[in-house]
Amino acid sequence: MMGLRMLVVAVLVLGFSRFTQAALVLTIDTYTTDELSFTLSGAFDENTTGDLPGYLAIKNDWSHNVAEHTELFSFQPTVTSNTIQIGDGLVPTQATVQDGTAPWTDTVFFVLTPPTNGNDFTALPFLAGMPVSGSMTLSGTGAFNPAHAATLEVVSGFNIGRDFARLEYSPVPLPAALPLFGSALGLMGFLGWRRRKAPSAG
User: Fold this and answer.
1) Is pTM beyond 0.90 here?
2) Measured between alpha carbons, how far is 152 from 88 in angstroms, rounded to an integer?
3) Of 19, 105, 160, 167, which shows the fewest CB atoms inside 10 Å?
4) What is the distance, to the nearest Å, from the Cα of residue 174 to the centroid of all Cα atoms in its chain?
5) What is the Cα Rg of the chain in Å?
6) Are 153 and 173 in contact (CB under 8 A)?
7) Residues 162, 64: one domain?
8) Which of 155, 149, 154, 170 is nearest to 35 (CA)?
9) Are 71 and 36 contacting, i.e. CB atoms less than 8 angstroms apart?
10) pLDDT mean over 18-39
11) Residues 78 and 35 in one domain
């Protein structure tokens, strides 16, 4: 009974935690008007696709605004710390914070292998099983809106259509979490009723 009760508690917690669309996990460590700090962990569960498959990015609410501009910061912040590693302990050769009004801007980009001869089409894809780990801190007085903490997403595979081929990570919207919460409460109530109805030993 104790093991099942602990499982129910875990379901309750997971219902309001972040959800991994692939095998990557995004954790927001700090989100104020002046600073954004996040951690990436996990691994790609399949090879990335798209016209420029070697791009991994942090975007705000991209899945609801594909190929449209969504604000992530009001001006380009400064990277004050970056330990993000992709692959076998290799720091990405390019990490870019890009502000602007175009659909692909207001983004934190990571590129595993830099394009050769200035040709983006030579960027290599991220491969299934390739690990991602580390954290990044961005700073800028008044640059951030903490309300975006609930809608940050990790996307990969930059397309010529100025969107991304794959959603690597997405948070659970609150309406989707509430039924899970209710189901878990119902299960806990049922277990309590079963225990009260069970005949006592001896």
Assistant:
1) no
2) 26
3) 160
4) 16
5) 21
6) no
7) yes
8) 149
9) no
10) 84
11) yes
In whole angstroms, give the CA distance from residue 33 to residue 151.
Answer: 16
Quick one: 176 and 160 in the same domain? no
Tens digit of pLDDT for each residue in 88-138?
A: 766 665 678 888 888 778 889 888 766 555 555 666 788 999 999 999 999
Which positions ≥6 away from 158 have C-beta within 8 Å?
50, 51, 52, 53, 55, 57, 104, 164, 165
Distance between CA atoms of 44 and 24, rounded to whole angstroms? 7
Give me the domain span that covers residue 41.
Answer: 19-171
159 shares its domain with 180: no
**Polymer length in residues for the chain:** 202
Q: Which amino acid is residue 90, in one-letter code?
A: L
Six-digit token string for 115 = 């394009």
Q: Is 86 exposed, middle or buried (0-12, 13-18, 19+ CB in 10 A)?
A: buried
Q: Which residues contact 98 (CB under 8 A, 6 or more apart)?
A: 76, 104, 105, 106, 107, 108, 109
SS3 content of the chain, % helix, strand, coil (to 5): 25, 35, 40
Tokens representing 25 are 């996990």
CA dist 35 and 78 (Å) reads 10
